[in-house]
Amino acid sequence: MLPRINLDMDVLRTFVTAFELGSFAKAAARVGRSPSAVSSQLRKLEEQVGRALVERSGRGLVLTEAGEVLLGCARRILELNDQTVDSLRGSELEGEVRLGLPQDFAETWLPRVLSTFARAHPAVRIEVRTERNAQLIHHVTTGKLDLALAWSSGVRGCSERIAELPLAWIGQRGWQRTGGRGQSLPLIAFEAPCVFRKACTTALDRKGLAWRIAFASPSLAGLWAAAEAGLGVTLRTAFGLPRTLAVLEPKASGLPALGSIPVYLLRAEREPSKTVAQLAGILREALAQELATPQRARPRRFRTREAGRTSTRGA
């Protein structure tokens, strides 16, 4: 029987970090090593598993089939390791964290993040607000929230750009524009002010397309319901998109091509408490992992990747 090989935890973390940040150079900066040291770590990992993990594609690198398998396993190994360490240290953390985030993240992603934090820090009480972007920024700058995910950086406090999400036209499956070119495009949008509404109308104006607001709502659920009913199209990200709706291809639907929107992690204080800092770290890592899943990003090229209110204890 062949001897078991113990994979180096630090090497696995560098490997996962490189994939999530989009390059080994950025991973080197994150883990505090030189690029040559990170390259040596990758070679060591390939020697341990006996397979090539990355291959060159143009000017970038992509994961091989073995690399794909290892990436998924490495994430689970690191998650278990981090949960174990956090659980042993969790008794040191207590108090309260007030978290705010857009409605997009509330239903599909937030429960898993809170569950991870709660298992590690059962003595911490988390208060969660799901609000619109302007309200989130206001609550952070006025000290009503300790942390928030937002679509813009705000004015005061501390902001960190942690992700970039592609903007997308969303509507019924198979939706097509009807009427002549002069026909106004029916839009579904949040009430102004809204960063998505502004991006939507700006893109249409630049292409010279007429539009009208066919449905306005203060809630994301309202937008999805209107889109499902066929009242028009909306502009959002595909994060948390209901299965009943689809991302519309710009060329096929006659809509303008879109860019992306950043996601910021806002903190009320530049030097947060250990409890706030711990939740911020979990949010940052969980979002990076979510966006790096094969369903959300293909191909994975290292060169290119860079108001409700609830309150629970221990959740």
TrEMBL record:
Superkingdom of origin: Bacteria
InterPro entries assigned: LTTR, LysR_HTH_N, LysR_subst-bd, WH-like_DNA-bd_sf, WH_DNA-bd_sf
Name of the protein in question: LysR family transcriptional regulator
PROSITE patterns on file: HTH_LYSR
Region named Disordered: 292-315
Keywords, alphabetical: DNA-binding, Transcription, Transcription regulation
Domain HTH lysR-type: 7-64
Family: Belongs to the LysR transcriptional regulatory family.
Source organism of the structure: Corallococcus macrosporus
